Amino acid sequence: MKKHFSTLQLYRLLLLALVFPLLTSCNDDDEETTPSADVTVQFRNLVAGQNITLGQTYTSPSGDTYTVEDFKYYISNVKLLNANGDVVYTEPESYHLINETAGNTAFTLAGVPAGSYSKIAFSMGVDEARNHSTDQEGDLDPSSDMVWDWDTGYKFLLLEGTYTGDADAGGLIFHIGQDENYTTFTMPLESPLTIRTKSGYTLQVSTELNALFQQPNLIDFDEMNAAMGGENARKIVENYTAGFFSVAELK
């Protein structure tokens, strides 16, 4: 009888040894972190609906002709929102120089949690917390030629080129910056971004360069061909707030 009892005990121990790893495996699965994926944000810069070509001649909304030789701007503080308008993802250290001149027009949002996203929010420019320090790295490195000085801060948008108007011809110089011109945009996606796996995802945001010169302030280059602050800069800010960015789409 004693021998039979010991055998039964051994049987139970063996059974427990087989079942225990399965139980702990299930628990490990339950405790795994929420899946996440990287999302590429691509900015497509357009003139009259076509990809911008540096050096090519374009016609402005007021009828002037112009070329673009250098074009870049800062995108910062990128967030993704759900259908209720709640911020679900905030990119840390979120400062990106969209540099059409150098061909750098995309960046990656790392570790976006699984879920459904209906809007993207971002700002044009550099926020006040970083705008007045030039001792910085990455896209905020002063070598990018996007800094005036530590007091004035960064150029949020830089456009340089040439123009020919009805009465004159010359250079175009638009350098937009200063804290009061830091602008935030929230845009709905054409369709929800649904993240289920770790596969790559891409959001495309389009810009229309002619919108900088169109509404609500129609810009005649004979009258205004430069802006580095003041009323002229504010006119450009009002224009890009009204229609520079278009709805983001999934690719």
Name the helicity range: 10-25%
N→C terminal distance: 73 Å
Number of strands: 15
Overall outline: globular
**Number of separate domains:** 2
- Radius of gyration using CA atoms only: 27 Å
Q: Report the structural category.
A: alpha+beta
Average predicted local confidence, pLDDT: 89
Output the helix-strand order: HEEEEEEEEHEEEEEEHE
> Unreliable runs, pLDDT <50, ≥5 residues?
26-31
> How many helix segments?
3
Strand content is 35-45%
* Major sheet size, sense and barrel closure: 10 strands, mixed
- In quaternary terms, these chains amount to single chain
Description:
With 251 residues, the protein is an alpha+beta fold. The chain has three helices and 15 strands. The model is unreliable at 26-31 (pLDDT under 50).
Short description:
This protein is of the alpha+beta class.
Secondary-structure topology with pairs:
Layout (H helix, E strand, L loop, with lengths): L1 H29 L5 E12 L2 E2 L5 E3 L5 E17 L5 E4 L4 E5 L6 E8 L1 E10 L3 H4 L15 E3 L3 E12 L4 E9 L5 E13 L5 E8 L17 E2 L2 H14 L5 E2 L1
Parallel strand pairs: 1-13, 11-14
Antiparallel strand pairs: 1-2, 1-7, 3-4, 4-5, 4-6, 4-8, 4-10, 8-12, 9-10, 10-11, 13-15
